[in-house]
């Protein structure tokens, strides 16, 4: 690969890394927005399910009432037939057939509403479970991110503190060395001054004149 090609590849790599870094930085915001939208969608689905449930109950009630009416008219047709009023019995039976058609239509709608409601209920439960799982993962990711930032900050501060402490120790060592050198110079100057003034010689002469002045054994014998 040419140098130009390598530069282009490197640039693409850096651009990709930068894009991923931006995406990662915005990831939590994006996820939170998606969770809000998902919750809104679930709320809308629950409203639709409630409407479906209401329609199912209405059809269930209608079927029950129609079946009751069919039973009542069937009994009336029997009575008319037993009384020899065949035209009335036929008219009642024809009305019963129409009611049965309506029962079948309402029953079909009831079954449809019920099946749709059950599917929606299952889908809503699955979606809520997924959102709860995602929410827990997001909370865990937030906690881990905060921990990582704290650890990085602590590591950086510790490194800086260690560097400052090392610098302070070095400065103290240099100060002690400089003080020792200055003390040595002062002592040498004092020694030289004593020699020049004869004070050192005078001290030696007095020691010869009083040899036992500082002798502990001699002092002890005088007690």
From TrEMBL:
InterPro entries: PspA_VIPP1 (IPR007157). Keywords: Coiled coil. It comes from the Bacteria. The keyword Cell wall biogenesis/degradation does not apply. The keyword Cytoplasm does not apply. Residues 28-55, 117-192 form a coiled coil. Belongs to the PspA/Vipp/IM30 family. This is PspA/IM30 family protein.
């Amino acid at each position: 690969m040419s140098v130009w090609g390598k530069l282009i590849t490197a640039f693409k790599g850096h651009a990709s890394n930068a894009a991923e870094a931006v995406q990662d930085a915005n990831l939590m915001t994006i996820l939170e927005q998606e969770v809000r939208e998902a919750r809104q969608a679930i709320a809308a689905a629950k409203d639709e399910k409630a409407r479906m449930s209401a329609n199912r109950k209405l059809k269930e009630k209608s079927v029950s009432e129609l079946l009751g009416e069919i039973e009542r008219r069937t009994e009336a047709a029997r009575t008319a037939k037993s009384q020899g009023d065949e035209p009335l019995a036929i008219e009642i039976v024809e009305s019963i057939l129409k009611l049965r058609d309506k029962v079948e239509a309402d029953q079909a709608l009831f079954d449809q509403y019920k099946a749709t409601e059950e599917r929606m209920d299952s889908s809503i439960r699955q979606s809520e479970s997924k959102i709860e799982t995602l929410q827990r993962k997001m909370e865990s990711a937030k906690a881990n991110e905060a921990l990582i930032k704290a650890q990085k900050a602590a590591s950086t501060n510790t490194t800086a503190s260690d560097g400052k402490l090392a610098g302070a120790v070095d400065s103290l060592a240099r100060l002690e060395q400089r003080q020792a050198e200055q003390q040595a110079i002062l002592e040498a100057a004092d020694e030289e001054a004593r020699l020049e003034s004869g004070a050192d010689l005078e001290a030696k002469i007095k020691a010869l004149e009083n040899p036992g002045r500082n002798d502990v054994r001699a002092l002890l014998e005088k007690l």
